[in-house]
Amino acid sequence: MRKVSIIGAAISKFGEHWEKSLRDLIVEAGTKAVVDAGVEGKDIQAIYGGTMASGRFIGQEHIGALIADHLGMNPIASTRLEAACASGSVALRAGYLAVASGMYDIVAVGGVEKMTEVSTEEAAIALGGAGDQEWELFMGATFPALYALLARRHMEQFGTTEEQMAACSVKNHDNGSKNEYAQFRNKITVDDVMNSGYISEPLKLLDCSPITDGAAAVILCAGDKAKKFCDAPVEIAGSGQASDSIALAQRKSLTELSATKEAAKQAYTQAGITAKDVQAAEVHDCFSIAEILAIEDLGFFKKGYGGKAAEDGETVLNSQVSINTSGGLKACGHPVGATGVKQVVEGVWQLQEKAGARQVVGLKNFLTHNVGGSGATAVVHVLRRA
Amino acid sequence: MRKVSIIGAAISKFGEHWEKSLRDLIVEAGTKAVVDAGVEGKDIQAIYGGTMASGRFIGQEHIGALIADHLGMNPIASTRLEAACASGSVALRAGYLAVASGMYDIVAVGGVEKMTEVSTEEAAIALGGAGDQEWELFMGATFPALYALLARRHMEQFGTTEEQMAACSVKNHDNGSKNEYAQFRNKITVDDVMNSGYISEPLKLLDCSPITDGAAAVILCAGDKAKKFCDAPVEIAGSGQASDSIALAQRKSLTELSATKEAAKQAYTQAGITAKDVQAAEVHDCFSIAEILAIEDLGFFKKGYGGKAAEDGETVLNSQVSINTSGGLKACGHPVGATGVKQVVEGVWQLQEKAGARQVVGLKNFLTHNVGGSGATAVVHVLRRA
Question: Which domains are seen in chain A, by residue range?
Fold first, then answer.
């Protein structure tokens, strides 16, 4: 396989954008990424876009064609991919394989979701389609409830506390305060989280990522051509993807996401590294407990010690491993189809030392970890300077 | 790029399956394809699945994970692709590129749609998401209306008649009568079509493809390993995909689908052939006028002469070019996410001389043509014996 590098990266401001449509968001991120890459629109040979539930959020399918159309990129091939909240990452992986195959030299990868045009109830139902519709959502199990089950089990088995989970949110808001694109830039305390009211016990409002409108885009280039366009291309050194049962009831364990472990193994092997070689990561903190599961399953901390690590400050900026430098899903926001691509944009900026006040020092390998549903899909990428 | 071959192919019976869920349909087609390929489940390294609007049809997104789960294929990567009614073909193309890249040697590609769990009105709205939601569907333009506009313009500019369009449906029902998997196996006459009542003038009921439940699957293998599993592997000799404006109002012409022409050009070039070298094709006849546009835009007949060719019998089985040997979308049925894969299954069976009473004689190159929306996406593949 050919090596593939990222030569441009951009995101839209994440937030509640009543005045912007999905089209506006993708044009904003897409055009900025093209400019950042130093290519021209005509150099782009194909588009891969991630969107989770545009059919339910805005009544629009066929998002690939919509993106090509509104970016003025017809007639190039433009394709939508979907894997629930991991849609952005599977789009990246498809773009990566398309360039690696030799079919294309330069492709654009985007992720987008416009979530605020429906009520919170409708959004919960749309998002519930990421789990098992027949055996979970239909029975009333929305996503806060599913992750609350995972949290309960982790607390029971390892003594993880609500305060430890809260520490993830506090740290992510701290990082988000340094990110101009983040939905929430306010700092919060453990007390704020503890007093924020139960959504699904033990998860409280400030354990939960928000509803967000946003888009992100990167430009991929064949590795041997990347330096023609970009002084500091970022190589996709490893790409892993794995599946697990869509319903929690079928899982062997509720204290790990086995798809995360498998996807990480693939990505580490391809990149020729282990978890110890990763200095910073964007992980999938749709709920605070998800971040704890992730930092354990990715191998950064021993199983059962993720909560303690978070509480002890071992995941803050420039600690053992800087987790969710962008602010994560919690503070940067979680436009579900865009998140996987946004994680990669953050990795590119960190590796190019463009991350300003949240810059990680001495960074060599940056990892992105994106989960669909309650862990039925996990995608892991390892990035480093080409 | 490595060569890629198809070593197994299967479809479920197409029709209204009140007793079967989407899960049942994909398991039916998927397991039959694995058996046909002579591989074992553990040999499959990844899955690519096409589904258009499962979020609206059955409240379920994350179809990739669902497929892997219900086929017992965890933890391999499983990814959904969507391009409206061309979802199956973009899934095939993604699987093709993944094997061509060298990442995988054997992958499964599926397409599936379960359309009968909602009312006809809800289905029309779900399908309307294939066009421009803001500028077409929201204004009341459902798909029969959009294709009626294309038909009107073709009639105006080239003198195409309703009887000529009807000839496409008559021929497709004739072919479908020979296909045990087809939704409709009854033969019809031009008078039947003419008397079937307007849906959106000039299109009548029997000009329109039906609402269908169904699934289709193929197994792809690296070309140099295909003969280990299959005596008669079928090579994907050309693959093309192109985009056009999602709304009809933005098109330069209403008498051609420019995305079809561009995708065909790519596929012909890669396969080293021209339209003259194609003896049989599955083309996207969501409405009868769409078949006329297709056989012109693919280069089988001169622009404006597609209606006459259909009327003169130049597209029937074992004529100049055998069109829609399976019965097409009209008679075989149109489970939107499955159609693109079903077209390829028909191509494989024809090239392997397994098509029984509808076998094309002297077949060398088989073409599949799948359209998303009113032509915003078109995907063309050229198949031949490896």
Answer: 4-119+212-234 (3.40.47.10), 140-210+235-385 (3.40.47.10)
